[in-house]
């Protein structure tokens, strides 16, 4: 595993991103719709920098099992339990990769008739994009690679690492148990 972004770099980037969000939203209340499980650590840090009124909601979708490539349309495993009509939604995910997850979820969330929907990701991994979607807010840009740590997993491992690492070919071949 190769270190890509240290915890200090991540903290600085999240702080800078939060400053942009604070400027853009002003006093307007925002609903963070956080995608479990990968975005939870990012959202926890981000929301503590936000100065507008913040509500936290969670969804869980699955697009990947043990693979590292997208399987197409994400399945909703946990949906919102309340309507978000007239709310300002900030959809928070760990990584924007092919774009399929955020594309489908933005469409799904439009059924709530929110006042606005914007997307916010820890990492914008731009090389494999399949649909025309851009993150409104991204803390880190990355061309390619499969990353873990800071909430992100490979086979449910590594979410607890406090920095972001790139998995290399030999890590992907290895079994995930010790
Ligand atoms: P997309 O639908 O944009 O292809 O994929 C988004 C989802 O794929 C992310 O929420 C994340 O769960 C997963 N994903 C994409 N790239 C990576 C990666 O490099 N590492 C990890 N751990 N997950 C990834
Ligand atoms: Mg995800
Ligand atoms: Mg995952």
TrEMBL record:
Pfam families, per database record: Pribosyltran
Catalyses which reaction(s): IMP + diphosphate = hypoxanthine + 5-phospho-alpha-D-ribose 1-diphosphate; GMP + diphosphate = guanine + 5-phospho-alpha-D-ribose 1-diphosphate
Main location per the UniProt record: cytoplasm
GO aspect biological process, one term: hypoxanthine metabolic process
Gene Ontology MF terms in the entry: guanine phosphoribosyltransferase activity; hypoxanthine phosphoribosyltransferase activity; magnesium ion binding; nucleotide binding
Residues in Phosphoribosyltransferase domain copies: 10-154
Pathway connected to this protein: Purine metabolism; IMP biosynthesis via salvage pathway; IMP from hypoxanthine: step 1/1
Gene3D superfamilies given in the database record: 3.40.50.2020
Compartment(s): Cytoplasm
Protein name: Hypoxanthine phosphoribosyltransferase
Species: Desulfuromonas thiophila
């Amino acid at each position: 595993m190769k270190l890509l972004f240290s915890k200090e770099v991540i903290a600085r980037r999240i702080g800078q991103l939060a400053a942009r969000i604070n400027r853009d939203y002003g006093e307007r209340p925002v609903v963070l719709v956080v995608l479990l499980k990968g975005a939870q650590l990012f959202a926890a840090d981000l929301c503590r920098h936000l100065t507008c009124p913040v509500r936290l909601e969670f969804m869980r979708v699955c697009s990947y099992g043990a693979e590292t490539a997208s399987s197409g349309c994400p399945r909703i495993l946990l949906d919102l339990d309340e309507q978000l009509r007239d709310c300002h939604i900030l959809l928070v995910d760990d990584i924007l990769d092919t774009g399929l997850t955020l594309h489908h979820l933005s469409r799904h969330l439009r059924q709530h008739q929110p006042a606005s929907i914007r997307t916010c990701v820890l990492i914008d991994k731009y090389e494999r994009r399949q649909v025309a979607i851009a993150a409104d807010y991204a803390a880190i840009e990355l061309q390619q690679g499969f990353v873990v740590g800071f909430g992100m997993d490979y086979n449910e491992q590594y979410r607890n690492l406090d920095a972001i690492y790139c998995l290399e070919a030999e890590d992907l071949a290895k079994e995930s148990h010790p």
